[in-house]
Write a structure and sequence with these properties.
Helix content: 25-40%
Shape: globular
Strand order of the largest sheet: 1-7-6-5-4-3-2
Oligomer: single chain
Number of helices: 4
Strand content: 35-45%
Number of strands: 7
Mean pLDDT: 83
Distance between the termini: 35 Å
Structural class: alpha+beta
Length: 164
């Protein structure tokens, strides 16, 4: 399993406000260039976001579904990448003094990633999280400063480049 953590210098309610706002998803999830609501009301269980991943001239669309929600401490997601399979992403938000400890635990569930799950794949997920958690921290800082309310830095959410 790929588990990584980071202390974010904001209280848990600000971190949670960032996680529950679908407009910020593409800002902190590595590899995602845009996201938009698909089904349900994010982040209620069963709600889904669609996302776009871009790599050079290639783009791919997938979806992320909420599987477990225990505000303001747990958000578990299933990222569905079609032929690549699905992955479970558990995000735990813990008070850490007046700051927040965020723990991300991700592992493949179905498809090739689930069948071939081994240490090299965990290493790739760890590298992704090494970038993702600081991006989450920066997004949380914007939310705390009041600069990000309803606005996505990367053009995610219902903003430029996303479907409506």
């Amino acid at each position: 399993m790929a588990v990584r953590h980071q202390v974010i210098e904001q209280p848990p309610h600000v971190v949670w406000a960032t996680l529950e706002n679908p407009d910020f998803y593409a800002d902190w999830v590595v590899g995602t260039s845009a996201s938009w609501p698909l089904d349900g009301r994010w982040p209620l269980v069963g709600a889904a976001l669609a996302y776009r991943m871009s790599l050079g001239p290639w783009t791919y669309e997938g979806r992320t579904i909420v599987r477990r929600l225990e505000p303001p401490h747990w958000l578990e997601l299933e990222a569905d990448s079609g032929r690549l399979g699905t992955a479970r992403i558990a995000i735990e938000v813990r008070p850490w003094g007046d700051q927040t400890l965020v723990i991300v635990d991700e592992h493949p569930l179905r498809g090739p990633g689930g069948a071939l799950h081994a240490a090299p794949l965990d290493l790739l997920i760890q590298l992704r999280h090494r970038s993702m958690l600081p991006r989450l921290a920066r997004t949380v800082e914007r939310v705390a400063a009041g600069d990000g309310a309803g606005q996505s830095e990367s053009g995610g959410g219902t903003h430029a480049g996303a479907r409506k």
